[in-house]
Amino acid sequence: MPWYFKFMQIDIITILPELIQSPFEHSIIKRAIQKGLVKVNFINLRDYSLNKHRQVDDYSYGGGAGMVMMIEPIARCIEDLKSKNNYDEVIYMTPDGETLNQKMANTYSTLNNLIILCGHYKGIDERIRELFITKEISIGDYVLSGGELAAAVFCDSVIRLIPGAINDETSALTDSFQDDLLSPPVYTRPVDYKGIKVPEILLSGHAKKIEQWRMEQAIQRTKNRRPDLLK
Ligand code: ADE
User: Fold this and answer.
1) Nearest-CA residue for atom 4 of ligand 1
2) Which of 20, 48, 75, 139 could disulfide-pair with 150, CB 3.0 to 4.6 Å?
């Protein structure tokens, strides 16, 4: 455990709880939950529907293709959550939000209580954004069928940064993007695969030289692939 203990609660509002659950049941994220660093609740929006058909969407005023998620179920759901807890942010996953990057993941990992709303269909009634949403996040310039996969990506990027989520504390710090550099190449056994050898320096046992080599490789890789990251 790190020297201080931090707990995060993430409440995800979705019409497809089954779709979003599995990324939280494996690897680092599963262990972070087991260690009690984070609790993730999946809230079925249909439970807050006002009618017996559990309807949460309706036709768009002004016409046009695609249904719009209605304000009442979402408002009831968010108000219910807020009556039980204080939240740092109410996030809406949407392609027209701020594009997620590592700096944002770092910042969100310091917060304690988040609501994440997953959209569907043509979007959500604009008044929900005005009244309840404090942050809008996109995971990239493409459109997904719903916000669930985007929410899972966002949560994964955040939860793995909570102190204690990753056993080797330095591991998350050496990730790509953490210092605006891509990661250097890595190798494991065998030393020689069909004549392609692991770089000699990595076998030298010379920690300082290895560190220097990795830094050079990281810079070279970033220059080649993502020159925009180098200021
Ligand atoms: N919902 C649909 N597409 C999305 C995207 N690219 N990012 C976040 N939420 C979305």
Assistant:
1) 95
2) 139
